[in-house]
Amino acid sequence: MTAQAEPARDAAPEPTQKHLVVRAGEYLCALPLASVRRVVRALSVRPLPGSSEELRGLSEFAGEPLAVLDLAKLVDAPPGATPEYPVTIVAWAGPAADRELVGLHADAALEVREIATRKVAAGAGGVILGEVSLDDEVARVINLRALGGER
Amino acid sequence: MNAPRDLLLLSRAGGVWGVDNARVSQVEREAGGYRVELRSAEQVRLLTADEVLGVVRGLPVSTGASPVRRYWAQPFVGLAVHGGTPLVVVDPDRPPGLLLTTEGETSDGNGRDEQKGA
Q: Which of A7, A27, A93, A151 sits most deeply, having the most CB atoms within 10 A of its CB?
């Protein structure tokens, strides 16, 4: 008499999170989709004299003032080709209790991807939460909570 | 968002700036722009503006602005929008250096204090 093999149990689904994948300079960046409020054509900004290069300037969104940051500068991305249709991603940034809307200037918004949490290789901290392989390219997973408070 | 404020709006260095209108004691035209005098019990500060845009009453001011504070070292009260234009609401006791005239600030009746840099 042969033993009957147990039917394979369904494996527990791998935890994933939806991310908006964008191009910033030569890097791909993945932003948690739950924090993204809107993607718009690149907003015009008024620079603040003497600001760090990460801060492109001030803009207006839905009647409110909006700080626009340069995503490529935030992640130290090498400059890429001049973008044809740059975008501003309006997203919630900072800790949950004190979150604020911020604009992130990027070269292009590409797609929404499910990213498995366990596949994100932890980064050094700060704005880059970690890195994940997407097809043939490495994407930096962005930690929007790190954009609030003092630097 | 904090209580609405009455602000005198100025343009300077490509930006728009709001100053507490209650602290403005004088606006004077000078070569190339305007001089705005801010007065408190302790001192007088002189600001320079390219243009004076007018007084706006009851403008809502966002005082958080953490992303701006993170990457811009100048002190400020908050941010606002008027007519679709974003602006910085200045701290009248610590205005950004680019708004100060070369005369900077004076203490009340005691000669000139150290000039604040840009």
A: A93
Contact of A24 with A77, CB cutoff 8 Å: yes
Q: Which of A60, A98, A149 lies nearest to residue B86, judging by beta carbons?
A: A60
The beta strands (E) that lie in chain B are given as 2-12, 15-20, 24-30, 33-39, 43-49, 51-61, 78-82, 85-89, 100-107
pTM of the model: 0.86
| Contact indicator for A106, A96 with CB cutoff of 8 Å | no
Question: Which of A14-18, A45-49, A126-130, B103-107 is predicted least confidently?
Answer: B103-107
**Residue B74 and residue A46: Cβ atoms within 8 Å?**
no
Q: Which residues, other chains included, contact A45 with Cβ-Cβ below 8 Å and sequence gap of 6+?
A: A56, A57, A58, A59, A68
Q: Does A148 have pLDDT greater than 50?
A: yes
Interface residues from chain B to A (CB-CB < 8 Å) = 13-16, 62, 64-74, 79-81, 84-88, 96, 98, 118
Q: Do B81 and A60 touch (CB under 8 A)?
A: yes
ipTM for the predicted complex comes to 0.82
